[in-house]
Amino acid sequence: MLRIGYGFDVHQFGGCRPLTIGGVSIPCMKGIKAHSDGDVMMHSLIDALLGAACCGDIGSMFPDTDAKYNNIDSRKLLRIAWEKITMQGFLLENIDITVILQIPKINTYIYQMKHHLSQDLNCSVTSINIKATTTDTLGYIGRSEGIACIAVVLLTR
User: Fold this and answer.
1) pTM beyond cutoff 0.90
2) Which sites bind a divalent metal cation?
């Protein structure tokens, strides 16, 4: 059985948290506003995985009203969600992620992001695709007010 999941997340710049994408700390003049570490890649991926497995969403599993998730490393959340999904017999086929941001450029960090995901999900880096794009200065992302991420996953059981 094939199961497809889709996840989306967005965070606003302007907070005091460092910019973390895919578990990688990226130098940026702007911080992120968030309850956890604000990692849009991890959050959209968790939502995609949970969706494919019909296990709800990140907000239900890790509510931002719970103080224990304040400042938490989103890689930890990913590992918890993935354990729940694999306990149901799901296997990961592939991941496709698009990070949408005007600044900063992240191409030099993509290999490290893929490595983190492959470690956390116990899969090959060849099952993970990560790319970045801009909005050509349009909208809140184009004005460098925030970043977004879309993740699509394919699971089998």
Assistant:
1) yes
2) 9, 11, 43
